[in-house]
Design a protein that fits this description.
The chain is mainly alpha-helical and 468 residues long. The protein has a three-stranded antiparallel β-sheet with strand order 1-3-2. Strands 4-6-5 form a three-stranded antiparallel β-sheet. Among the domains are: 160 residues, no CATH class; 69 residues, Arc Repressor Mutant, subunit A; 96 residues. Keywords: Coiled coil. Pfam families: Snf7, WHD_CHMP7_1st. This is Snf7-domain-containing protein. InterPro entries: Snf7_fam.
């Protein structure tokens, strides 16, 4: 394997923001820091996790020698020292702790061995999955024995980091599924399926070839999934997400989490066959149409060059392709109409099943003893009797209240007269208060005008005799 070009390495987000001193630390052997400096150890492992994932999804870790081959984007191939050489940087060297990083990522389930992933019958999220059972098994065992069983410690007590780089690679070399990349790819595929689905049954049915054609380019931006990636995604969507059912060549999308209760029916197989035939015919139509366009252009070129014989030859060929195109379009139209009828009939089956289920449910409800005619009459009679009893109780309470009021010898006329007297008393008090306010003289400062005399008080004016 050749090294990844420096320009491509520095384009990775993790390399773009790291200093040269920090890079040398990341490329050094930091295996022993797990106990002496655990925070730095965890930070280094996390940096390498992001670096490996970014390199993988960009296709920088491809082992293929041909440019035409599609590199794996979800499966990491870690095979010895040559893998570390891919990250060699001039002046820094190659990373020495890649085996340690891979081991830690496997322990945290960020990486899962490809064979274990494809062959496991239980979900990777199931606590009873194999790695968790191993962890539970070694808990409580002597520390050195447990570490030895996991390959961290040699039988003679040597720590994983004490062995040479070649020995470390022997313990971790292999193919690994990058779980975070897989989860991201699965979510994008499910979102694409939700967007393109129109509610027709054919929209949820694929074979492996059509699945890859529909979703390989949307798993990651600018990346195309390889055949191995597609196999991993299908296993994840079926077993871990419960979003598809895979039966032979049929891939059927279902509501997420309902894969265990759904099935692939013969109707699904027939619809998929029709859909596949239509897609193939459409590809043939596109090819024939493209050939007709080419011949038309060649005819025009030949006529401009006054080469009538060549133009006539191209014209005959175009006529033949037009006949082929006409037949392909007719066949495709027939298949499409057949597909529509099949989907409609399949939908009618589902509707009838819903009717039957609803009818059975309604009959079951109506068969309840509480809804029988005799029971209904009995219940209604009991309700009428209870209402009559309630009215009798209410009448008895009202009668008792009236009798208690009569026993108190209280006359409503007397109460009304007393209330009026109280109201009149309040009015009299208000009137008396107003009179007192009017009789009280106001304290004002008299004004003296130098040019006019003050008029005599009214009492003195009354003393002046009036001439007869």
């Amino acid at each position: 394997m050749s090294s990844i070009p420096l320009a491509q390495l520095t384009s990775l987000p993790t390399y773009a923001s790291v200093s040269s001193t920090r890079l040398k630390s990341l490329y050094s052997d930091f295996t022993h820091q797990k106990h002496s400096n655990p925070s730095s150890y965890a930070s280094n492992v996390e940096w390498w996790r992001h670096t490996l994932e970014a390199s993988l999804v960009r296709g920088l870790l491809s082992e293929s020698s041909t440019l035409s081959a599609v590199p794996d984007r979800l499966v990491l191939h870690a095979y010895g020292v040559a893998f570390a050489d891919r990250f060699r940087v001039e002046g820094v060297g190659k990373p020495l702790s890649i085996p340690t990083v891979i081991f830690e990522l496997c322990s945290s389930k960020a990486l899962i061995p490809l064979s274990d992933f494809l062959n496991a019958s239980r979900s990777i999220y199931d606590p009873g999955w194999l790695p968790y059972r191993i962890a539970n098994y070694v808990v409580g065992k002597p520390l050195w024995w447990a570490l030895g069983q996991l390959g961290i410690v040699e039988s003679n007590g040597a720590v994983f980091g004490d062995s040479g780089t070649t020995e470390r690679w022997k313990k971790v070399r292999g193919d690994y599924v990058a779980v975070s990349l897989l989860e991201s790819a699965a979510e994008r595929i499910l979102e694409r399926q939700r967007q393109k689905s129109t509610g027709h049954l054919a929209d949820s049915l694929y074979n492996v070839e059509s699945f890859r054609a529909a979703f390989a380019d949307c798993a990651h931006e600018g990346a195309t999934l390889s055949s191995t990636d597609v196999k991993v995604v299908l296993k994840f969507l079926e077993r871990d997400k419960g979003a598809i059912i895979v039966r032979g060549e049929v891939i059927k999308f279902v509501d997420e989490g309902t894969a265990q209760t759904s099935e692939v029916t013969p109707v699904d197989t027939g619809i998929l066959a029709l859909k596949t035939s239509i897609e193939r015919l459409q590809a043939q139509v596109d090819t024939v149409q493209h050939r007709i366009d080419q011949l038309t252009q060649q005819i025009s070129d030949a006529l401009r060059q006054k080469r009538k014989e060549i133009a006539m030859t191209h014209l005959r060929a175009r006529k033949q392709f037009e006949e082929v195109l006409k037949k392909r379009l007719s066949s495709m139209e027939l298949l499409r109409s057949t597909l529509i009828r099949v989907e409609t009939s399949a939908g009618d089956i589902e509707i009838m099943k819903a009717y039957e289920s609803s009818t059975a449910t309604l009959r079951e409800v109506l068969a309840h003893p509480s809804l029988q005619r005799e029971k209904i009459d009995e219940t209604m009679d009991a309700m009428a009797a209870a209402n009559a009893d309630a009215r009798e109780v209410q009448d008895a309470i009202q009668l008792g209240a009236e009798m208690a009021q009569a026993d108190a010898n209280v006359d409503d006329a007397d109460l009304e007269a007393e209330l009026q007297a109280l109201v009149q008393q309040v009015e009299d008090e208000k009137a008396h208060a107003r009179d007192q306010q009017l009789e009280t003289p106001e304290l004002r400062t008299p004004r003296h005008t130098p040019t006019m005399e003050q008029p005599a008080p009214r009492s003195e004016q009354e003393k002046v005799p009036v001439p007869l």
